[in-house]
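Risk register update: the risk of archive-format incompatibility is retired. Evidence:
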Amino acid sequence: MTKIAYAAMLEQFHPTELLDWCAQAEAAGFDAGFMVSDHFHPWTPQQGNAAFAWSFMGALGQRTKAPFGVAVTCPGFRYHPAVIAHAAATLGAMYPGRFWLGLGAGEALNEHVIGGEWPEVGVRSSMLFEAIEVIDKLFTGKVVKHDGEYFTLESAKLYTRPEEPVPILVATAGPRNAKRCGQHAHGMITVGAADEKIEMLFEKFEEGCREAGKDPKAASKLLQIHVSWAPTQQEATDNAMREWPNGGMPFPKQDIRNPEDFASLAKMVRPEHFANRVLISADLEEHAANIAKYVEMGFDEIHVHNVGRNQAEFIEAFGEKVIPQLKLS
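Archived output:
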């Protein structure tokens, strides 16, 4: 049965406020837990935050009882894979069976801060999967070494680990990475897209699973969707335009470096640009139908991000009117 989760967006909200909303979401029926964003910068200055995800998740584990994971961390720029493995193993040991590790190829917005070359997407993809190899080695608890194309590891051992390794999920939006994700990870994360694209990603992911000798049915499929709900259509539209204009930018964003650049691009965004990217609606029935469509597609978890600042109101409304419908369907 598909579970519904709350997307905790640290680039928009102060972490203390967000902890309160996560607790509220858990009580309201968001039973799959939490997907925590990992940003060094917000998308636009207006969003106004970018707290350290790993500090937040330590507190989140104490405050709540549901599963949670980071979506997504990029290995290889701000973080060496050994550091990510160390952090993930610690959370896994503190909160057994609750923490999962979401990894992705990264965005210049967050990773360029350390300087140096920003590689093409193909190189970043190769770095990602080599990083997973490094992390998997460390999760064994053995003394390991690695001398690869992108990463070096010298006599490293994780002493604090969970009994079972933390599951690794990979964010993917293209066929090649979807297949590699099936081969090397425990699950995939993607975002709302056209039905045909999601079906293609599922096919490639399952193909990769089978090639690696894994049962595709045992692998996790997580979806993040962005919505803008408010009591009126005008409020919902205003929230999307003001708080999440990046959601109306129908082009790759991985190479844009600064929030100010996103703010400049946001001047060109119009409400119609959010179509099929962010559902803007005051109608809770429409939101329920939108999520139900993805339930029918076979996602295990759907993580819902309401782009407005009306988080408490959104959680209450979805908990009362939307989630119960999905559990009955």
